[in-house]
Amino acid sequence: MPKRFGWSSLGNPLRWISLLILSLTTVWLEAQAHLTIERISREEGLSHPSILCLLKDRKGFLWVGTQYGLNRYDGYNFITYRRQLGRLDGLSDNFITSLCEDDEGFLWVGTQNGGLNRFNPHSLKFTSYLPEEEDPTSI
């Protein structure tokens, strides 16, 4: 008569399930061990040590919003965008509070006192959207 195969022939099923979970956890922890963390500071080109927001865009650039400008990091170098008086296609404020990328690849930059800015990655220019003076909540 053929021998039937089932959990009873393997012993306690909880033991096997526990062994499986332990094995999967070990594999997951091993994958996590390959994570590398680098400290990046002003010496490497960051505009200010207080980072207020971060965004990784679809091209892989890391955007860093600080109290003194918007920084784009490519893994090697920083490009810093700051407000330039008299420039209409530049950043409207240096104090960056929020970052978001839309479906078209535009970067939206929220500032403390300069409203909202849209960065065009093709032209490298900003468009500013400022609140109305009578209604500071208009944006």
Name its key features.
139 residues, alpha+beta, Thrombin, subunit H, four-stranded antiparallel sheet
Describe the structure.
- The protein has helices spanning 7-10, 13-32, and strands at 51-56, 62-66, 69-73, 78-81, 96-101, 107-111, 116-120, 125-129.
- The radius of gyration is 25 Å and the shape is elongated.
- The model has no long low-confidence stretch (mean pLDDT 84).
- A four-stranded antiparallel sheet has the order 1-2-3-4, with no helix packed on it. It has a four-stranded antiparallel sheet with strand order 5-6-7-8, with no helix packed on it.
- The protein is built from two helices and eight strands.
- 17% of the residues lie in helices and 29% in strands.
- It has 139 residues and is α+β, with helices and mostly antiparallel strands.
- The protein has a domain at 42-129: Thrombin, subunit H (Beta Barrel).
- Strand 3 (69-73) and strand 4 form a beta hairpin.
